[in-house]
């Protein structure tokens, strides 16, 4: 019995994770749903690998897409090699190949870029990123110019009759790879190298006085991050069967930064949240409105300003209150502030869309508005303003309740 | 050949000085607050767009004066309500914040002004050839650009060396920590410097808009280059920024002007490669082809071999 | 339960297609059901092009034209196949190959079988490859690619596919016309070629050099230059080279900001030579070039612009302008493509891509300008007369960007003379 | 022989000469205190010994091997640990992790990414032991950054001694503590440096004379005296150079 409990404690979360990954297609199985799952799987691995740099190791990189892209390019080249039978193994190993290549690049670039963290590292990563992206357009043989290179994943030996022609098959493969990658990235945080990465992030000087070279520690996390970014790239190659310059340029590097940051740096689950969130925004929100990038930008800035630890951090914030059994006391104040906040949000979005639309009627939240009519504007602005006032009024109470909930009982600081 | 040399120099000068107008603001901001402002080029873009809108109604010159002011105020507001908030979270958070800001501003510009290129024209007063050399005109407007940039540089130099605020800023550049103990209203100075820095970027945008075309991508084209300059010049060193700006400007225009390529280089060593070679692309490279990415190569090399930059004192 | 829902939403008008496609998406995602085709269901056409991000202006104006044409020719006149409306489903690909494939999968799960796409040959190539794979792996679910402006010759040469139809003349055809026109001008002795450093840029450079050698051996190519896409801040250094090369004509395949900046720098430097190009018009470019570019920028394109040959096309243009004051009909080929596809549907009384494809092959169709177009069966390349037009403000009835400036056609090449051989070996699906 | 010995060590920043030829021998197991007025160069001396600064000239030997100008991590691996004047811990990690990281190298884990720390029972027990020594057992899972000042100082000590180094440099271990806190701190220091070589910089003379069995006086970068506490008390030069002023303080 006790053993069972400990087992559940130890592995329950992982079993649940695997179950979710494998059961998603049972939930929604449309072609679109599957393609979204595939994106999520790739994004999760990529974002987690980025978190190894910034979250665990304190290295802000503006060029992480390089290792993702490199892994992807070699992945597609592997597909081509399998196709013209210069190598013979199942395509299910492509992510592994991609990972190795990502690691290789990281070994080379990390050897000089990890000397310092902070601004210097960030700038080097930026420069390297630009260089690789630029040369990818110049060296057509390997990168295929702006059209990129494309292959076909249905060649090579089948895996128990599975030829990976259908995206659903790829998804199950991706799910397994994602699961494995996640486990290994988690285990890495539990090793001396992983822990010292945190130590170096917190206080490089002190780390040197307990026997560790900060540079070596950074180098190791950097390589690990490159490896898993490469795995993600390999998954990309399998899913899309092509890859282009855009997958290793600054935009992709920026996107993964957004994912990791919005999700929550430093918390292992954070990047997973971020990856899922941004994938959904990219596929769903862009259907709602062509302003989705604007909203993404706003969301990101707000996160940086008000939730420096991201969504995961926001959840973890409540740990203390929960441990002290006072979480329930927060529900009411949250509602009091939350409702006007929601109204305010909807109001602002409506206004933005109203300004933006070119049609004579704007259909939003099931109601249709006419940009031409002045009353519409007045009402909207009034509502939004009122909501804002409501927030301002109720915020102090929330703060109070928060302190009350987190105040340590008895002595302490 | 001579004509090419002369014009390459002139072009390099124009670009270099323009870049310096951005780099100087960026350096000031960094020196004071230790923030590398990723969104700096975005303020440059805002400058161009505001000037465009103003020029539609009040003409170019009004834009030249007011657009930078608007941008400066915006910058100050960003510092006051955005950066200051993120400050305690550390430099990485600040860098990420400005990164997000750049992202947001680009989207905002597309939201308010639309995505197509704007026909922002230089004033008719300056639509004549300053001088013609070897059949190529050097437009008065470019001369005007040089004049403005130099003017700004002198003004900046004067303020920094003569005025009281300038002295404080100087102190901040060399001893960032001491300023706080000087008993000046440091937050206010920060806000001011950020405002002025962004306003400088605004000026650059106003005068660059008509020649370099005003479109939503203009920030990204310039953005990382300015970064490169500040880092190469040495974080927090105005002189360094100045040298680096001219260096990059000239480097690029000369690289483009030149016609040498990998082959010529290899010929020097008497090496030659078949064109069906796997690396044929590499042997085929020409300097003009790679000119725009040379700065990044320079950046990486400098950071590896001299992380403090050409004239920088401190690394972080 | 959800079925009445669907039918109700089918009545929604064009303006809310975004919302519509979202609802369908939710249905599809949540219940994995794709609308079961009933007699009165609309015929859905996906428009996959950049609708957000920096290339969005071109995508959006293309969308406006397609939507308007669908309304103007069919929906307002009771639809096709006896009452089925055309419905344009806009899918934003941000001009990224990756997002293109994502949107392609969405189109498939919304059971859309016809895809319009035009911007960027890179996107067109990946979409072409994706569709070929998809159609091979999912017989019965085939999808048709209607390429209305990606001009990379490869799409109708080595990479040609039974499921891909191009309604624009490809780069080499256009260059043929362009060089014909240059060759006619005895004053041109030295030509300078500059382009973006990617496949289209290189195609333009290589072929213009080759063709000029054939047509005017006396013309000297005084320089061929490549620069990275969207990386160049200031083109003046390049112009300096052009000047010192003594060129008296410039050929470039640049588009977007690179085109504007290049033209501006040339104008500023007082270098008074003609610029022969492809994409120096509309979406703010015409307005930006304005007076400076007058009578010196020459474009090659299909469909004559001012003077407009037929009254019906004038009516169409006026009607479009009336409804979209801020847009122009920048790509008549979109309308041609739509009309020919519908013609094929009506002819075969079927919306099955395979039937449509067969009907399109070797179809001859008279367009709004009253000229006959021919879709060659062997490589699915359209052939129609090509034209050279000049950027000017004289004799402009239909201007661009409401700037008073526009294109005046000054040179025509009849369709039969534009025909070029193809190396396409198409493998045709058997049914 | 001396476990730690400095021979004519000089350090100057530009033109300013901070350490002007310090020679010092510290025997195995001795409790050595370095005192001196502010700006005498005590901290600089520590930075030189522990490898944060490089010496301008002279040699520093640890257990007979020269260690001057070696990076801090090499010196630390050779068995010399130090604490800092300003608290210097890993704020975002738990108290337990702080100590465990300090243990890693000496336990031979090096840069391993194949050991799972959760499985290293003996390592974790050891970390817990250290925690109980410094009295932070019940705070084990607390983020180090949120401890009270005195507790952070204690953790600082814990990190310093965890590696089991024979030579321990403490830089003003009780600075900024209340009297009672200082009392406990001293007790703690006594007990955890049992049988080890301790070098200590401290301003509180009571503590110095209480703990140290040998004292060196550093004035303007030079050691003007190095002797038993009693002798130091009697020393004339020290009197005028230093203790006089301190006496007024005390």
Helix-strand blueprint:
The complex is a heterotetramer of chains A (413), B (316), C (431) and D (250).
Chain A: H1 2-27, H2 31-56, H3 65-83, H4 94-113, H5 118-138, H6 140-143, E1 149-150, H7 167-189, H8 192-202, H9 204-208, H10 214-240, E2 242-243, H11 250-263, H12 270-288, H13 292-306, H14 310-317, H15 319-323, H16 328-356, E3 362-364, E4 367-369, H17 374-406
Antiparallel strand pairs in A: 1-2, 3-4
Helix pairs in contact in A: 1-7, 2-7, 2-10, 2-11, 2-12, 3-4, 3-10, 4-10, 7-10, 8-10, 11-12, 11-14, 12-14, 16-17
Chain C: H1 3-10, H2 17-31, E1 43-49, H3 56-74, E2 86-92, H4 97-109, E3 114-117, H5 121-137, E4 144-147, E5 164-166, H6 171-184, E6 190-196, H7 199-215, E7 220-227, H8 236-244, E8 249-252, H9 256-268, E9 275-277, H10 285-289, E10 297-302, H11 311-323, H12 332-348, H13 353-360, E11 364-366, E12 372-375, E13 382-383, E14 386-392, E15 406-413, H14 415-418
Parallel strand pairs in C: 1-2, 1-3, 3-4, 4-5, 6-7, 6-8, 8-9, 9-10
Antiparallel strand pairs in C: 10-14, 11-12, 12-13, 14-15
Helix pairs in contact in C: 3-12, 4-5, 6-7, 12-13
Chain D: E1 2-13, E2 16-27, E3 31-35, H1 42-50, E4 57-62, E5 65-66, H2 72-77, E6 80-82, H3 95-104, H4 121-133, H5 149-162, E7 167-171, H6 179-192, E8 197-201, H7 205-211, E9 214-219, E10 222-227, H8 229-234, H9 236-249
Parallel strand pairs in D: 3-8, 3-9, 6-7, 7-8
Antiparallel strand pairs in D: 1-2, 1-4, 4-5, 9-10
Helix pairs in contact in D: 3-4, 3-5, 4-5, 5-6
């Amino acid at each position: 019995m006790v053993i069972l409990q400990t087992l559940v404690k130890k592995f329950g979360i992982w079993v649940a994770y695997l179950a979710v990954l494998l059961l998603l297609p049972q939930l929604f199985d449309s072609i679109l749903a599957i393609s979204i799952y595939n994106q999520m799987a790739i994004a999760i691995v990529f974002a987690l690998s980025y978190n190894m740099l910034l979250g665990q190791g304190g290295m802000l990189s503006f060029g992480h897409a390089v290792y993702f892209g490199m892994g992807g390019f070699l992945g597609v080249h592997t597909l081509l090699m399998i196709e013209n039978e210069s190598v013979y193994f199942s395509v299910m190993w492509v992510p592994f190949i991609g990972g190795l290549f990502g690691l290789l690049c990281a070994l080379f670039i990390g050897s000089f870029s990890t000397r310092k963290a902070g601004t210097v590292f960030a700038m080097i990563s930026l420069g390297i990123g630009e260089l690789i992206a630029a040369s990818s357009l110049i060296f057509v043989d390997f990168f295929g110019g702006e059209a990129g290179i494309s292959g076909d994943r249905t060649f090579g030996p089948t895996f128990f009759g599975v030829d990976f022609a259908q995206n659903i098959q790829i998804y199950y493969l991706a799910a397994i790879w994602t699961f494995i990658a996640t486990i290994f990235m988690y285990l890495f945080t539990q090793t001396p190298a992983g822990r010292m990465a945190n130590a170096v992030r917190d206080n490089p000087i002190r780390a040197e006085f307990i026997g560790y070279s900060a540079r070596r520690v950074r180098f190791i996390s950097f390589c690990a991050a490159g490896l898993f970014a490469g795995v993600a790239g390999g998954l990309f190659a399998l899913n899309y069967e092509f890859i282009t310059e855009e997958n290793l340029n600054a935009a992709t590097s920026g996107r993964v930064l957004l994912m990791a940051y919005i999700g929550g740096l430093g918390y292992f689950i954070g990047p997973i949240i971020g990856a899922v969130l941004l994938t959904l925004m990219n596929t769903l929100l862009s259907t709602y409105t062509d302003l989705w990038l604007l909203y993404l930008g706003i969301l990101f800035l707000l996160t940086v300003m008000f939730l420096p630890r991201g969504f995961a951090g926001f959840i973890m914030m409540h740990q203390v209150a929960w441990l002290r059994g006072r979480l329930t006391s927060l529900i009411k104040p949250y509602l009091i502030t939350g409702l006007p906040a929601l109204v305010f949000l909807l109001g602002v979005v409506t206004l933005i869309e109203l300004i933006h639309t070119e049609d004579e009627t704007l259909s939003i939240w099931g109601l249709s508005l006419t940009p031409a009519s002045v009353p519409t504007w007045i009402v909207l602005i009034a509502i939004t303003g009122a909501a804002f006032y409501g927030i301002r009024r109720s915020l102090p109470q929330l703060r109070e309740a928060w302190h009350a909930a987190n105040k340590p009982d008895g002595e302490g600081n | 050949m001579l004509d090419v040399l002369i014009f390459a120099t002139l072009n390099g000068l124009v670009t270099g000085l323009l870049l310096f107008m951005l780099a100087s603001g960026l350096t000031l901001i960094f020196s004071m607050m230790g923030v590398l402002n990723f969104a700096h080029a975005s303020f440059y873009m805002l400058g161009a767009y505001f000037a465009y809108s103003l020029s539609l109604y009040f003409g170019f010159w009004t834009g030249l004066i007011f657009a930078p002011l608007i941008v400066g105020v915006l910058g100050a507001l960003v510092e006051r309500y955005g950066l200051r908030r993120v400050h305690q979270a550390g430099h990485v958070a600040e860098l990420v914040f400005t990164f997000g800001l750049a992202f947001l501003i680009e989207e905002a510009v597309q939201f308010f002004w639309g995505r197509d290129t704007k026909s922002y024209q230089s004033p008719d007063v300056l639509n004549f050839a300053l001088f013609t050399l070897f059949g190529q005109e050097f437009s008065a407007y470019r001369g005007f650009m040089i004049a403005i940039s130099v003017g700004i540089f002198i003004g900046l130099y004067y303020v920094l060396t003569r005025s009281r605020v300038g002295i404080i800023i100087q102190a901040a550049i060399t001893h960032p920590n001491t300023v706080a103990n000087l008993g000046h209203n440091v937050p206010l100075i920060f806000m001011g410097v950020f405002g002025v820095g962004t306003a400088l970027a605004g000026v650059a945008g106003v005068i660059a808009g008509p020649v370099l075309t005003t479109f939503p991508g203009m920030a990204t084209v310039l953005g990382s280059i300015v970064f490169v300059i500040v880092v190469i010049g040495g974080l927090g060193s105005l002189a360094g920024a100045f040298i680096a700006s001219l260096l990059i400007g000239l480097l690029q225009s000369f690289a483009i002007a030149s016609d040498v390529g990998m082959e010529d280089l290899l010929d020097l060593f008497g090496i030659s490669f078949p064109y069906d070679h796997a690396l044929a692309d590499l042997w085929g490279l020409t300097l003009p082809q790679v000119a725009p990415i040379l700065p990044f190569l320079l950046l990486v090399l400098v950071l590896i071999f001299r992380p403090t930059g050409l004239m920088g004192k401190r690394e972080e | 339960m959800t079925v009445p829902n669907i039918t109700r939403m089918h009545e929604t008008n064009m303006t809310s297609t975004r919302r519509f496609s979202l609802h369908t998406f939710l249905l599809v995602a949540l219940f994995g059901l794709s609308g079961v085709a009933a007699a009165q269901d609309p015929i859905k056409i996906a428009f996959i092009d950049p609708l957000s991000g920096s290339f969005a202006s071109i995508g959006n104006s293309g969308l406006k034209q397609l939507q308007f044409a669908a309304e103007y020719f069919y929906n307002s006149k009771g639809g096709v196949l006896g009452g089925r409306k055309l419905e344009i489903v806009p899918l934003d690909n941000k001009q990224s190959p990756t997002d293109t494939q994502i949107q392609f999968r969405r189109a498939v799960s919304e059971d859309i079988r016809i895809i319009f796409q035009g911007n960027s040959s890179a996107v067109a190539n990946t979409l072409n490859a994706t569709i070929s794979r998809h159609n091979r792996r999912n017989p019965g679910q085939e999808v048709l690619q209607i390429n209305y402006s990606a001009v990379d010759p490869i799409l109708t040469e080595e990479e040609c596919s039974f499921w891909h139809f191009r309604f624009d003349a490809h780069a080499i055809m256009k260059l043929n016309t362009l060089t014909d026109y240059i060759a006619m001008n005895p004053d041109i002795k030295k030509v300078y070629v500059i382009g973006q450093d990617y496949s289209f840029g290189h195609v333009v450079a290589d072929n213009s050099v080759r063709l000029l050698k054939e047509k005017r051996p006396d013309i000297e190519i005084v320089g061929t230059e490549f620069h990275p896409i969207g990386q160049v801040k200031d083109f003046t250094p390049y112009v300096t080279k052009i000047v010192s090369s003594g060129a008296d004509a410039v050929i470039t395949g640049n588009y977007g900001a690179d085109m504007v900046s290049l033209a501006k720098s040339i104008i500023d430097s007082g270098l008074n030579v003609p610029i022969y190009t492809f994409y120096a018009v509309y979406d703010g470019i015409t307005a930006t070039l304005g007076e400076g570019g007058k009578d010196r920028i020459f474009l090659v394109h299909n469909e004559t612009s001012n003077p407009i040959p037929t009254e019906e096309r004038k009516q169409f243009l006026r009607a479009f302008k009336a409804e979209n004051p801020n847009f122009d009909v920048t790509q008549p080929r979109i309308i041609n493509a739509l009309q020919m596809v519908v013609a094929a549907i009506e002819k075969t009384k079927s919306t099955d891509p395979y039937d449509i494809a067969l009907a399109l092959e070797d179809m001859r169709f008279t367009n709004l300008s009253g000229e006959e177009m021919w879709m060659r069966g062997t490589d699915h390349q359209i052939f129609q007369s090509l034209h050279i037009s000049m950027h000017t403000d004289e004799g402009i009835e239909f201007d661009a960007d409401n700037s008073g400036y526009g294109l005046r056609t000054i040179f025509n090449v009849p369709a039969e003379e534009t025909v070029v051989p193809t190396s396409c070996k198409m493998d045709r699906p058997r049914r | 022989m001396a476990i730690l010995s400095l021979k004519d060590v000089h350090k100057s920043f530009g033109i300013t000469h901070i350490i002007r030829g310090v020679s010092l021998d510290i025997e195995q197991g001795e409790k050595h205190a370095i005192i001196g007025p502010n700006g005498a160069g005590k901290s600089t001396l520590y930075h030189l010994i522990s490898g944060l600064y490089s010496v301008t000239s002279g040699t520093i030997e640890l257990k007979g091997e020269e260690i001057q100008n070696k990076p801090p991590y090499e010196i630390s691996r050779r068995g010399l640990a130090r604490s800092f004047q300003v608290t210097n811990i890993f704020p975002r990690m738990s108290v337990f992790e702080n100590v465990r990281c300090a243990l890693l190298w000496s336990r031979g884990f090096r840069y391993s990414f194949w050991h799972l720390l959760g499985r290293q029972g003996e390592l974790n027990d050891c970390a817990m032991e250290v925690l109980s020594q410094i009295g932070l057992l019940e705070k084990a899972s607390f983020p180090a950054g949120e401890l009270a000042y005195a507790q952070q100082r204690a953790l600082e000590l814990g990190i310093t001694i965890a590696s089991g180094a024979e030579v321990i440099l403490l830089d003003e271990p009780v600075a900024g503590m209340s009297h009672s806190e200082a009392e406990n701190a001293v007790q703690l220091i006594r007990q955890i440096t049992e049988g080890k070589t301790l070098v200590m910089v401290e301003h509180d003379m009571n503590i110095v004379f209480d703990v140290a069995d040998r004292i060196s006086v550093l004035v303007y970068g030079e050691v003007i005296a190095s002797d038993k506490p009693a002798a130091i008390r009697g020393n004339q030069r020290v009197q005028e150079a230093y203790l006089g002023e301190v006496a007024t303080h005390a």
